[in-house]
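Whether sequence alone determines local backbone shape is best considered at the level of individual chains. We regard such an encoding as a compact summary of how the chain folds. The sequence in question and its structure tokens are set out directly beneath this paragraph.
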Amino acid sequence: MTGKEFKIAYTEYSSIDELNPEDRELAAEAIEAMKGSYAPYSHFNVGAAVRMSNGQIVRGANQENAAFPSGLCAERTAMFAAGAKYPDKAMTSIALAGGVWGRLTEEPATPCGACRQVMAQYQTKGGRPMSVLMLGAKRIWKFEKVDDILPLIFDSI
């Protein structure tokens, strides 16, 4: 038997102003996307923005439904729209922001497991790393690739 461990690398920023211009733009788009959230049950608004290899940005927001689990997370809303609109382009980065009543949470919003797996699939499809920005009012986390937030990606098919 051999004991092993995962090491996850990320960069922490204290504000959007510390981000490079591309990441700052993507972060602002994710925050703006929160306005499109339909969250009458949880009141937790989530916005996501995906940057494509052609520079285009596609936004998405969480959509809740009384018939649980018929709603959809912001990240998947954005990625599915981006995949449909730009099927031949890679997704190079995704940013997500969450908050209550439209106000950004203090700590970074993190994606659910299903969204992480969808990110992994699109990263594989694109053939290049997709960076992930998780936004909070007090700090922002940047991961250089989806593998860092989902180390055992399901790709056995």
In short: The chain has one domain: 11-148. The helical segments are 21-33, 74-85, 113-126. Residues 113-126 form the longest helix (14 residues).
